[in-house]
Amino acid sequence: MDVGNLSTVTQFVLMGLSDLPRVRLPLFVAFAAIYHITLVGNGAILLALGTERKLHTPMYYLLANLSLLDIFCPSATVPKMLHDLLTGEHSISFLGCAVQLYFLVALAGSEVFLLAVMAYDRYVAICFPLRYSLIMTRAHCVQLVCGTWAAGFLNSLLHTVSTFRLSFCKSNLVNQYYCDIPQIVALSCSSTYVAEMLVLVVGGMLGISAFLSTLASYVSIISTVLRIPSAAGKRKAFSTCASHLLVVCLFYGTVLFTYMRRSSSQDSLSRDRLVSMLYGVITPMLNPLIYSLRNTEVKGALRRVLCGGARAQQAGR
After folding, report:
1. pTM for this one?
2. For 89, phi and psi rounded to 5 degrees?
3. Is residue 188 helix, strand or coil?
4. DSSP 3-state helix, strand, coil percentages of the chain (rounded to 5)?
5. Is 229 helix (H, G, I), strand (E, B) or coil?
6. What is the CA radius of gyration of the chain?
7. What is the DSSP letter of 174?
8. Among candidate residues 11, 10, 9, 15, the one with its CA nearest the CA of residue 190
9. Element (H, E) at 12
10. Spacing of C-alpha 148 from chain mean position
11. Region label for 56, one of left (φ > 0), alpha (ψ between -120 and 50) or beta (otherwise)
12. Tens digit of pLDDT for each residue in 221-231?
């Protein structure tokens, strides 16, 4: 469906996996189940952290914010994707596309910054354990978290405005199951230089800064852990950041795999869309599993919450 100019663009068509109709319903069932597990898993983490007083510490306050992002981020795209898979309709209004892109970029950006803050928290805890309570105060922790959310949403506002100020006259077919900057910019018939430079310079600088900050924190952590003389001490120190390190590797690994392997062939485009789907729903689902399986305190809190709920149900009967 081609459009003549910006005034005639009232909707976009999300291609998603429309070229693979045979797998539409199986994909709907699979992704609906994964999305449900994501909501339940991250909701359980939030409930456990909220009810367990001994977990009201900076580390778990940051984990609670990660769980919030892991609920909000897939919720920006997955419900629309499930609707499209179930009904076969793939259109989204111009405004709806802009809103979806804004929240997707904002939440994904906030998660990048939050992972850097979480790495900094572990760096202070392991490298400066005696000063940890003085550095990571409640007020400082709140400031860091507010900064991550503000940076993500302000950065997204800049990119969303620059993207949707473009003129669109080539096509309204978005080669993805959600609205994302590269796919929308590719449809423009006006100069995309400013929008692309903003992504490259502003987005690149913020993303690389957050990544380098996370990397520097873990280089310092590993260096400090290796200097601990006893094996038991090394295991104890590393166990405090192992879950977060796995989450960081999972996040950046899927991001790189998703955005660095673009191809022009039709089969590769379909594969890229599938990979994007997996990135959008699998990572938020695995994060609570990683923390609940590797962190004994979170595991214990979840067990007490679940057991308490089961006892309450039995008492109600």
Report:
1. 0.88
2. -90, 140
3. strand
4. 80, 5, 20
5. coil
6. 22
7. E
8. 9
9. strand 11-14
10. 13
11. beta
12. 999 998 888 88
